[in-house]
Design a protein that fits this description.
The structure is a single chain. The chain has 505 residues and is α/β, with parallel strands linked by helices. 48% of the residues lie in helices and 16% in strands. It is built from 19 helices and 14 strands. The strands form 3 sheets. A 5-stranded antiparallel β-sheet has the order 6-5-9-8-7, sandwiched between helices. Strand 11 and strand 12 form a beta hairpin. Helix 1 packs parallel to helix 2 and helix 13 crosses helix 14. The longest helix is centred in the middle third of the chain and has 22 residues. The chain is globular, with a radius of gyration of 29 Å. The two termini are 47 Å apart. It comes from Amycolatopsis rubida. This is PucR family transcriptional regulator. It holds the Pfam family HTH_30.
């Protein structure tokens, strides 16, 4: 936001794209996206939008604030790397969601619902819609094939058509949805224009908040559709509560709870009380990260991460009702409280399931690291630290799998800890290795690689020679020469161990 002459309470009615070369077709309340002009070169388009009563104008680049202030229209700047079609899709999704939400004060929470609906659609293989308790449509997945009459009329009318609602009430569908958790199945009724669908009620305790529906399209629903739907119904509850009671989009309670717990800003008892967990039960933190090769554009990476957050939330909520998910430092963390004493195998399977789903549905390579199980919720930060170290070890050691636990890479993690300690303690370093480094720098850097290969091969010169693609006699000569230059006796176990650690450092 660069300037807002009429304040931030101006309603947005629609989103339009304007090319400065085209005649302006702007109406009151429009959010105008000006393409093809940057900064001050968009002045004419800004003035035209102001005369038409537009709510705001978005341009790339800075400048034009004086023009916008004189025209009485808000001016926003868009990042140079953003694609206009993405900006339009995001903005239109928020406006459509706010319009569908009626009583909501902001569209951001409901915009998140559209993203979650699409995530559930990919996991279930169906067509998803989210409704409140009055059967008003809050969000829905993108249109697909084989949309039945019930879904078509619900989307068009922004609420379930009364004729169909009466049928569902007669069948007892809503009674079962409001009764509690669980999947409700509705069989196909071609004569009524109803295809097969499954649904789950969204609840806060015993209070119903809404319903999430999955209609079967041309293909059958996936084998994990009901599990994904159950997880989504639990994930949606705090979002719908927030939409009702906390219109400020900055108040993302559950995400902040986990971030505060892991960073030591919030005590475990407060978190446990808020999510209904037992602070004295074991807990575990999982860390997920997107591969940096996945996307060259920052905007694409952010979109992938948002989808990943939804996917993780759906899966972890199905596993543990009290699970929390948040993003910290570019990584997505999931907290699993209230764990049984022996839960390592199920959690490992859960992590593999999430990584597999991300690869299949999001086309995003993801790494997952399991922190150690800690005895109580207050130790969650320790589990988070373990998970971070596991991710680092996976990256440095080129771990063959996308999922690893602390037990899998414990040696690499401990070695990293030792090297970090040595790095912070210069007085523990052997000065003879500094001499060897200086000599190597002046003579082609050939001695240290030979020594490291020799030590890694446990003194087997043939194995070391193969790793360096040189003759075994060359390895023998270079190792002997390194000992002469440095004065280090590699036949002494203590000197050999310290030399390897310091050379790795």
């Amino acid at each position: 936001m660069l300037v807002a002459p009429r304040g931030l309470g101006v309603p947005v009615q629609d989103v339009v794209i304007l090319d400065p070369e085209d005649p302006p077709e702007t109406h009151p309340g429009d959010l105008v996206l000006v393409i093809g002009a940057r900064g001050r070169s968009a002045a004419a388009a800004i003035r035209a939008a102001g005369r038409a009563g537009a709510a705001a104008v978005a341009v790339k680049g800075e400048g034009g604030t004086d023009v916008a202030a004189d025209a009485g229209v808000a001016l926003l700047t868009v990042g140079a790397e953003a694609r206009w079609e993405q900006v339009e899709a995001l903005a239109r999704g928020v406006v459509d969601a706010a319009r569908a939400g009626g009583e909501a004060e902001t569209g951001e929470v409901l915009g998140d619902l559209f993203a979650l609906a699409q995530t559930v659609a990919t996991l279930t293989g169906g067509l998803v819609s989210i409704e409140d308790t009055a059967s008003r449509v809050l969000a829905y997945s993108r249109a697909g094939d084989e949309v039945d009459e019930l879904r078509r009329l619900s989307i068009l009318g922004r609420e379930g058509p009364e004729r169909y609602l009466a049928i569902l009430r007669e069948w007892g569908v809503y009674q079962r949805l409001r009764a509690g958790e669980g999947i409700v199945r509705v069989d196909e009724r071609p004569e009524l224009g109803i295809r097969r669908r499954i649904a789950a009620g969204i609840h806060a305790g015993s209070q119903p908040l809404g319903t999430i529906w999955v209609q079967e399209g041309a293909q059958p629903l996936t084998g994990q559709a009901e599990v994904a739907l159950l997880g989504a119904s639990r994930t949606l509850a705090p979002q719908l509560i927030r939409a009702r009671t906390r219109p400020d989009p900055q108040l993302r309670l559950r995400e902040d709870l986990l971030a505060g717990l892991l960073e030591g800003r919030v005590d475990a008892e407060s978190v446990a009380d808020d999510i209904g967990a037992d602070p004295a039960r074991p807990a575990q933190v999982l860390a997920f990260t997107l591969s940096r090769q996945q996307s060259s554009a920052a905007s694409d990476r952010l979109l992938h991460r948002a989808e990943l957050v939804h996917l993780i939330a759906v899966h972890t909520a199905a596993y543990r009702r009290t699970a929390l998910v948040s993003v910290l430092g570019g990584r997505v963390y999931a907290l699993l409280p209230d764990l049984p004493e022996h839960s390592a195998a199920p959690v490992l399977a859960l992590a593999k399931e999430i990584v597999g789903a991300a690869r299949k549905h999001l086309d995003a390579p993801v790494r997952a690291a399991l922190g150690g199980i800690v005895p109580r919720l207050s130790d969650a930060a320790l589990s988070r630290g373990d998970a971070d170290r596991v991710l680092l070890a996976m990256t440095r050691g080129h771990w063959p799998s996308d999922v690893a636990s602390l037990a899998d890479v414990r040696a690499d993690v401990l070695l990293s800890e030792v090297l970090a300690y040595l790095g912070d303690q210069p007085r523990l370093r052997d000065p003879r290795l500094a001499q060897l480094r200086a000599h190597d720098a002046d003579h082609g850097d050939i001695l240290i690689p030979a020594v490291l290969a020799y030590l890694n091969a446990f003194g087997d010169v043939r194995t070391a020679a193969r790793s360096l693609n040189i003759h075994p006699n060359t390895v023998r000569y270079r190792v002997r020469r390194a000992s002469e230059v440095s004065g280090i006796d590699l036949t002494d176990p203590a000197q050999r161990l310290l030399t390897e650690l310091l050379l790795r450092l």
